[in-house]
Write a structure and sequence with these properties.
Mean pLDDT: 95
Strand order of the largest sheet: 5-4-18-17-16-6-7
Low-confidence stretches: 671-686
Structural class: alpha/beta
Shape: globular
CATH topology of the largest domain: Rossmann fold
Number of domains: 3
CATH architecture of the largest domain: 3-Layer(aba) Sandwich
Radius of gyration: 24 Å
């Protein structure tokens, strides 16, 4: 098919793309969210379509045995036998923000509605659970309050814990275009590391890792002290201001400056920008979310928007979605507490609605365990079967040493398009179709829903994820409830479940996509989804781990790679010129340890160690940064060093704050110093 439309399968910006009959990918100039813009990664998507693919079901009863190829009929028989003999609450399903909405909906229906367990979570637990929790606490519901259009007339942008220049490049380019249009536009980045985003900003505030809550509380204190609070907005549309302010008063600028290791004038400047700009948008991502204190970081930033009335035409607190369809997954409620249409299993009204809608009964009222809790349950012998879909927990979860032991112990089903690290410990592997080999929808960060059409056949016996679960459901005796002929049947059912909800998609059809649900401003009339219809301030309490170590280690993405490199790592064009596994280190810190640039070092935490080379960069002293996504064929997983402690409210892991020591390990004899770069060699597939 020529010029077939689909959505980019990488970050949450949700770029609209076309692929032509020669396999060339280009931007969709008519896409309302991204207007034809795109970054480098999707251009090379065709290079990876057929490399390292899983093309037939594979099975072994014992993990030390080799896999043997089996038929789908045999695979379904094994799954049916397991699900009918293992109690539902001893099974667990771990899915992905890279699935199509229709697929996430079907799996959620399968697990919560018919298997009757809430033992399901998504890898969005690792990125968006904190933002979802904060949005619900502040506004009464999930959902980004504004859209990308608001970039085009804003005059102030704050990036906190977000390296959008590499993680959400199309969005950041739009911000830079806005600055070129007006000399009044100001961009501020708050980050311990001078990232590419920080280098292209007007001001970089180099904050101590983990102290964002203190910084934003101090900004609130300053806004109040200077008489800049918008009391007309606060009194008319919010509640809880006095309690939030009382807590913020613990952190006047002189105290906050010491805790955060930033100049007092930076706190004042941010307060002034909130108070006096025409329109301010704050963007944040995993630097705030992946934290023991993550929800409080989010709320401390949202409090500033509420105190200055920076909502709708005056601004927006904009959480940047990590994965291409984490927004769609949130709409279907695929975390352990969710139900479709921004519903929650803890609400009797929501449970009853979905039971009637699905023509079932017995949806459990308590959320299931999060994925990190499920790992503990597996090691304790309380979960016997784990079904992983479209994600790679052996690299991406924290405390990967513990994860590895859990995956060795449990009966593991891995359902994926590509062979990944987690397959090494699987019992049953199911070949899945990927983007372009199936059809369905995804929702980008600004609530724009895009229809991805099929433009190629899946290799071998690979099937769409929704079809796999539908066929298993029929084997389980649920034919009437899972009698879908195509993805459109699923979409038509799902969208009816959203009718009248904040995320109402009921008027959308495949033919009308791409299209955005909700108005440009989600709370256009300033009536929020809380019981009082008012937005809520919350005291943003501060807690920082007291780990011992010489350095604070932060993790993040690589510019041209995606997550654990399952797909991008198979593209020679994207690997070309990529650095070997590295850390960014302050040169002064390195010199004190006798370390030169490109030397090898061992990073050691109380949980383990990993080897990397050293690259110098402008990073706060006492901090290091390293990418997290190297598959094991390239490097030891850095998350082996990272604790699985979580935010108590969102249960999102504290991936951005790990105390480590750095031990010199000698010169890197493999490094090519002539040109300063040594590209990765293409990783060999370990698929049997």
């Amino acid at each position: 098919m020529k010029d077939t439309a689909f959505q980019c399968p990488y970050c949450g910006v949700g770029c609209g793309l076309y692929i032509d009959d020669k396999g060339k990918v280009k931007g969709d100039s008519l896409h309302p969210a991204t207007k034809g813009d795109l970054c480098k990664k999707p251009l090379y998507l065709p290079e990876a379509f057929d490399k390292g693919r899983i093309t037939a079901p594979l099975f072994r009863e014992a993990k030390e045995k080799p896999f043997k190829e089996i038929s789908w009929e045999e695979a379904y028989r094994i799954i049916e036998q397991k699900l009918k003999t293992i109690p539902p609450d001893k099974t667990y399903f771990y899915i992905s923000g890279q699935l199509l909405t229709e697929e996430s909906y079907i799996i959620n229906k399968f697990v919560k509605g018919f298997l009757k367990t809430n033992n399901i979570d998504s890898n969005s637990r690792l990125c968006m659970a904190t933002a979802v929790t904060a949005y619900k606490m502040a506004f009464g519901s999930d959902g980004v309050p504004c859209t990308y259009e608001d970039i085009d007339d804003a005059d102030a942008f704050i990036f906190a814990g977000s390296n959008a220049a590499i993680s959400h490049p199309v969005l950041f380019k739009r911000v830079l275009r806005r600055r070129r249009e007006s000399e009044q536009v100001l961009i501020i980045t708050i980050d311990p590391y001078e990232t590419e985003t920080a280098r292209k900003s007007d001001l970089h505030i180099s904050i101590r890792a983990g102290t964002d809550t203190v910084f934003f509380n101090s900004v609130l204190y300053t806004i109040h002290r200077e008489g800049w609070v918008n009391f007309q907005f606060v009194d008319g549309y919010t509640e809880g201001f006095e309690e939030a302010l009382k807590y913020a008063e613990k952190f006047p600028p002189d105290i906050a400056s010491s805790i955060c290791d930033v100049p007092e004038e930076d706190i004042y400047l941010v307060a002034k920008v909130f108070a006096q700009s025409k329109k301010l948008i704050s963007f944040w991502c995993q630097g705030l979310n992946q934290s023991l204190n993550g929800v409080m970081k989010n709320l401390s930033l949202i409090n500033l928007h509420l105190a200055t009335g920076r909502i709708n035409e005056k601004g927006c607190p904009f959480s940047l979605t990590g994965q291409p369809n984490a927004m769609g997954g949130r709409e279907v409620g695929y975390l352990s507490n969710g139900l479709p249409g921004y519903r929650d299993v803890r609400s009797e009204e929501d449970r009853r609605f979905m039971e009637n809608f699905w023509k079932t009964e017995g949806i459990k009222p308590m959320p299931g365990p999060s994925i990190t809790e499920a790992v503990d349950l597996i090691t304790e012998g309380k979960i016997d079967l784990l079904w992983v879909v479209c994600t790679n927990p052996l690299v991406s979860l924290p405390s990967t040493g513990k994860v590895e032991e859990a995956l060795k112990k449990v009966f593991l089903i891995v359902q994926d398009a590509y062979w990944n690290d987690s397959c090494e410990l699987a019992n049953l592997i199911l070949p899945a179709a990927q983007i372009g080999e199936k059809e369905g929808t995804m929702t980008g960060s600004d609530r724009t829903v895009t229809f991805s059409r099929q433009f190629r056949y899946p290799p071998g016996e690979a099937k769409p994820d929704w079809l796999i679960f539908t066929e298993v459901a029929k084997r389980m005796g649920w034919e009437e409830s899972f009698n879908y002929r195509s993805a459109v049947d699923i979409f038509e059912e799902f969208k009816r479940a959203t009718r009248g909800r904040l995320c109402d998609l009921s008027n959308l059809t495949y033919a009308r996509l791409p299209s955005r649900w909700g108005k440009r401003w989600l709370y256009e009339d300033l009536k929020f989804a809380t019981e009082s219809k008012k937005a809520k301030f919350h005291p943003a309490r501060f807690e920082i781990p007291q780990d011992r170590g010489s350095f604070l280690m932060m993790t993040g993405r690589m510019k041209d790679q995606w997550h654990t490199m399952t797909r991008t790592g198979k593209s020679p064009s994207l690997l070309k010129g990529e650095l070997p596994p590295y850390i960014i280190m302050n040169p002064d810190d390195a010199r004190e340890l006798g370390i030169s640039e490109w030397d090898r070092v061992v990073i050691r935490s109380k949980l383990g160690e990993a080897e990397r080379i050293v690259k110098f960069g402008k990073i706060k002293r006492g901090h290091i940064f390293t990418p997290f996504g190297y598959p094991r064929e390239f490097a030891d997983p850095i998350n082996r060093l990272v604790s699985d402690r979580c935010d108590p409210l969102s249960k999102e892991p504290d991936l951005k704050f790990t105390a480590v020591d750095i031990i010199p390990a000698g010169k890197n004899i493999n490094w090519c110093e002539e040109d300063g770069r040594r590209p990765f060699k293409h990783g060999r597939s370990r698929q049997p």
